[in-house]
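Why should sequence recovery work at all? Because a backbone constrains its sequence more than one might expect. Tight turns favour small or flexible residues, buried strands favour hydrophobic ones, and helices have their own preferences. The token representation captures these environments compactly. In the example below, the structure is given first.
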């Protein structure tokens, strides 16, 4: 039965009861508006459902197209968290050990209280023993002092006799040694410094000492050392014998001249990329893989003057400064000259 029929039926029952008891005029059912309210309610429900659907669609659209909620970093962290394996056995053992240590620590207080009385008694006994021992030691010291005086007198006499014998023996030994030295037996003379051999320095050490004596050096750049002087693993980009030291820094970082001198060459050819040579007498410094070079050939350079900017031109795996030191064409380990 629909709602309209129920309303109509209720009005009929109401009218019949009204005629029976009051005798008044029956109210026509056509005067009651039974269609307007249900139609309004139905329209309201439809609009509400449409709005709900729009909100749900908007939420899904935002979730799907948002770069923050489901970004690669967030997904990576979620995967790492899900892949983390918790060892519950290890956690259980750790908690158990902590519990047992706590129980043992608490039980130690009770044992300390029980042993306190015994310790007091032991202390009294030790004090008494120490008093007795002190008395015995005092007596022993007196006895030892008297005996020591007697022994010292006898010892002095023996020492005097021994010294006389030693002096005679030393005289004989000296005469024998002088005779051995004249013959050149068993060693050398004072001219050979006791047989010590002079230390031979390598050519690189000789060059490094010369450079330190004749030139003043400072660090051209402060940074992380990524490759030191000497042999290294060769690749298609880097050589197996590194002739300088690599100092890593960001591209564009300014570096300075390690020593004073004159620019003898500025070039961008070869595996060094953009590079510059600065000479001071027999000593030459090289700065390579630069992104920019501020100086020109023939220009005079003072120590600490800005030379250029760090880069990765030429054969380089990343931005860094390749720094070399040479004497008469021979490369020298820069770490022999200064600390990096």
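From this structural description, the recovered sequence reads:
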């Amino acid at each position: 039965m629909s709602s309209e029929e129920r309303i109509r039926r209720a009005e009929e029952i109401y009218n019949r009861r009204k005629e029976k008891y009051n005798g008044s005029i029956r109210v026509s059912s056509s005067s009651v508006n039974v269609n307007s309210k249900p139609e309004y309610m139905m329209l309201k429900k439809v609009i509400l459902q449409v709005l709900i659907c729009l909100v749900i669609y908007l939420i899904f659209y935002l979730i799907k197209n948002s770069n923050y909620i489901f970004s690669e970093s967030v997904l990576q962290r979620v995967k790492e968290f899900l892949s983390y394996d918790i060892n519950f056995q290890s956690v259980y053992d750790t908690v158990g050990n902590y519990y047992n240590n706590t129980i043992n620590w608490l039980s130690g207080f009770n044992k300390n209280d029980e042993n306190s009385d015994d310790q007091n008694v032991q202390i009294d006994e030790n004090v008494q023993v120490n008093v007795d021992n002190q008395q015995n030691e005092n007596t022993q010291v007196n006895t030892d002092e008297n005996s020591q005086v007697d022994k010292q007198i006898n010892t002095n006499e023996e020492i005097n006799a021994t010294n006389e014998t030693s002096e005679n023996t030393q005289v004989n030994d000296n005469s024998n040694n002088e005779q051995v030295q004249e013959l050149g037996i068993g060693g050398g003379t004072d001219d050979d410094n006791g047989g010590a051999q002079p230390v031979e320095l390598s050519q690189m050490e000789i060059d490094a000492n010369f450079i330190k004596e004749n030139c003043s050096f400072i660090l051209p750049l402060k940074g992380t050392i990524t490759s030191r002087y000497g042999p290294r693993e060769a690749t298609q980009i880097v050589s197996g014998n590194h002739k300088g030291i690599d100092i890593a820094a960001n591209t564009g970082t300014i570096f300075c001249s390690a020593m004073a001198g004159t620019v003898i060459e500025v070039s961008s050819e070869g595996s060094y990329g953009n590079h510059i040579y600065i000479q001071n007498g027999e000593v030459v410094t090289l700065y390579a893989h630069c992104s920019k070079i501020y100086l020109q050939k023939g220009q005079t350079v003072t120590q600490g003057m800005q030379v250029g900017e760090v880069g990765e031109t030429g054969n380089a795996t990343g931005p860094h400064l390749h720094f070399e030191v040479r004497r008469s064409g021979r490369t020298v380990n820069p770490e022999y000259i200064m600390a990096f």
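A few observations help interpret the result. Confidence is low (pLDDT under 50) at residues 25-32, 171-195.
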